[in-house]
Amino acid sequence: MNILGIETSCDETSCAVVADGRKILSSVVSSQIPIHRKYSGVVPELASRAHIENVNAVLDEALDKAGIRDIAGGISAIAYTRGPGLAGSLLVGQITAQTLSSLYRLPLIDINHIEGHLYAPLLEFGALKPPYLALVVSGGHTELIVVNDFGNYTYLGGTRDDAAGEAFDKVAKLLGLGYPGGPVIDVLAKKGDPKAVRFPRPLLPGTWEFSFSGLKTAVVNHVAGKKLSRGAIPGICASFQAAVVDTLAEKTFAAAGRYGLKTIVVGGGVAANSSLRTAFTARGKREKRSVFLPPLDLCTDNAAMVACTGYYRFKRGRVEGGLQRIEPGMKLKNWNEKNT
Ligand code: KG4
Ligand code: ZN
Q1: Relative to the CA of 85, which ligand 1 atom is closest?
Q2: 138, 142, 247, 276, best to mutate for ligand 1 pocket (most atoms within 8 Å of CB)
Q3: How far is ligand 1, taken at its centre, from the CA of residue 178, in Å?
């Protein structure tokens, strides 16, 4: 069964065709980073305009690469990201999906973007199946979620303020390193000493929540009034990155222990961070927990994860009415379909 996925929640226009939930037949991602770079962040109006310009070409390429000439014959259902995300950007994907659905009389599946990140590792690791603990760390989210089964989640907690990726982006902007901040800090940190500056680890004991704005302020205070030499930047990057990674690892592994989960999955753009990948892999070995880190193109936003999530929902007979009404920050104990 082939599902067409469409993702336009932020600054990537993406379409993909996935067979039986696991096999990527095509995955096309058109990134808008060059458009937003000069503003050091995503400009919503520019993002939605770029989606409008790109979506048809991205769709055609995804269908071509999957060898699908006839949508009605080659596609069984269409899954698209309904939220959370930028309203104008989401609308472009939604209208595209709705148009194709009514034109070709195909079922339409609305997907929550975070749920998509929970499923992305399934596309790489054939043996992976729930239950597992998922950490979703991106520019907009830092969430710890137990995937009890397909469509059945326990939401443990999210960030109270800045998401981890947002903190990377803001610190990079502060240091004049450009956008997006995560990849550039990742590279510079390799040349720096993670102990150069002792930044705080915001652990928020007794909760599964995160808070990165204080850490960002600690970097602001550290550089305030100083004329930074170029040589100081890698040490600041390495120290900031170490504080983020230590915090994420500490809380994730504590949650895995508390809920007796042997498998940990990390998704979202920050899962591309090399130090995070090394730290999670090493700690997983020490604690005898399997850690699944998707390849970089499945960490960042992509439509293949949306198609994969759509497949499992379709199989459960749930088409419209998924998780999109549940926004990060809502204090839900049981984050599953019964709540929608
Ligand atoms: O998942 P994603 O593509 O989009 C959102 O849904 O936000 O994540 C983008 C975020 C950005 O904040 C970017 O700086 C961060 O992921 N990121 C990284 C790395 N690569 C991307 N953060 C740390 N290290 C990286 N290597
Ligand atoms: Zn994302």
Answers
A1: 6
A2: 138
A3: 13
Distance 113 CA to ligand 2 centre (A): 6
The 3-state secondary structure of 63-79, one letter per residue? HHHCCCCCHHHHCCEEE
Task: Provide the token pair at 170.
Answer: 């803001």
Ligand 1 atom showing the smallest separation from residue 296 Cα = 20
Ligand 1, residues at Cβ distance < 6 Å: 10, 138-140, 165, 168-169, 180-183, 186, 268-270, 272-273, 300-301
Give the ligand 1 atom nearest the CA of 172: 14
Q: Per residue of the chain (340 residues), what is the pLDDT tens digit?
A: 999 999 999 889 999 999 999 999 999 999 998 899 888 888 999 999 999 999 999 999 999 999 999 999 999 999 999 988 899 999 999 999 999 999 999 999 999 999 999 999 999 999 999 999 999 999 988 999 999 988 888 889 999 999 999 999 999 999 999 889 999 999 999 999 999 999 999 999 999 999 999 999 999 999 998 888 888 999 999 999 999 999 999 999 999 999 999 999 999 999 999 999 999 999 999 999 999 999 999 999 999 999 999 999 898 876 655 444 444 444 444 555 554 4
What are the CB-based long-range contacts (under 8 Å, 24+) for 114-117?
114/84, 114/141, 114/143, 114/145, 114/323, 114/328, 115/153, 115/309, 115/322, 115/323, 116/7, 116/81, 116/305, 116/306, 116/308, 116/309, 117/141, 117/267, 117/268, 117/305
Collapse the DSSP code of 265 into the 3-class scheme (helix H, G, I; strand E, B; otherwise coil) and give the result: strand
Cα 114 to ligand 2 centre (Å): 7
> Which ligand neighbours the alpha carbon of 29 most closely?
1
Q: pTM of the predicted model, to two decimals?
A: 0.90
